[in-house]
């Protein structure tokens, strides 16, 4: 029996049809991404911490808003989930580069964070496409432990806000240790997901 056979059928129509793409949540994602990237680029060009703070604020508030509207309006789609994942990377990469320009001492932890977020976390976040679930937020249907460690509210906060918070406080060694710990969790989670995929082919 494959892993797919053990999954409950929660939203067959939504799984079969990844769209529509023109939804309110996707509009929120587009707007918050454009604003956050523009603010982040301005912070990068001017080495302005205030603009960087504004970029992060727009990114985080907008990220919560698009998730809330998707659930509230019943417009959660697989296409929207992919768009959200890609947009998060755009916002984060620009803001992280601005952070290093403003404070070069953050170079090592920020570089490690970007490698973890852009590679390990991206692969994990897109893994939901291998199963009939709407988004990473529903990955508990596939594996509760991987979901808990990566997409539960606490895990999401630790993945970005925890690292950025320690950097903002000038705790560079602590930030690097956080990144290493998060990276270890991502590697373990990826290994578990790969095992699920391999067992699904048996």
TrEMBL record:
> Does this entry carry the keyword Plastid?
no
Keywords for the protein's UniProt record, in alphabetical order: Membrane, Transmembrane, Transmembrane helix
Q: Which domain of life is it from?
A: Bacteria
Q: Does the keyword ATP-binding apply?
A: no
Q: Which InterPro entries match?
A: CDP-OH_P_trans, CDP-OH_PTrfase_TM_dom
TM ranges: 34-62, 112-134, 169-191
Protein name, please? CDP-alcohol phosphatidyltransferase family protein
């Amino acid at each position: 029996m494959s892993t797919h056979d053990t999954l409950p059928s929660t939203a067959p129509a939504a799984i079969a049809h990844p769209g529509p793409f023109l939804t309110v949540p996707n509009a929120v994602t587009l707007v918050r991404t454009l604003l956050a990237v523009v603010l982040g680029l301005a912070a990068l060009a001017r080495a302005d911490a205030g603009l960087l703070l504004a970029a992060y604020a727009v990114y985080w508030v907008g990220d919560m808003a698009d998730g809330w509207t998707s659930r509230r309006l019943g417009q959660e789609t697989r296409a929207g989930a992919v768009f959200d994942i890609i947009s998060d990377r755009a916002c984060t990469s620009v803001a992280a580069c601005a952070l290093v320009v403003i404070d070069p001492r953050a170079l090592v932890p920020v570089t490690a964070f970007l490698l973890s977020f852009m590679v390990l976390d991206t692969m994990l976040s897109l893994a939901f496409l291998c199963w009939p679930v709407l988004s990473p937020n529903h990955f508990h249907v596939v594996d509760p432990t991987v979901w808990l460690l990566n997409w539960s509210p606490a895990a999401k906060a630790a993945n970005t806000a925890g690292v950025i918070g320690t950097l903002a406080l000038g705790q560079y060694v602590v930030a690097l240790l956080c990144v290493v710990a998060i990276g270890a969790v991502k590697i373990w989670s990826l290994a578990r997901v790969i095992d699920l995929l391999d067992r699904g082919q048996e």
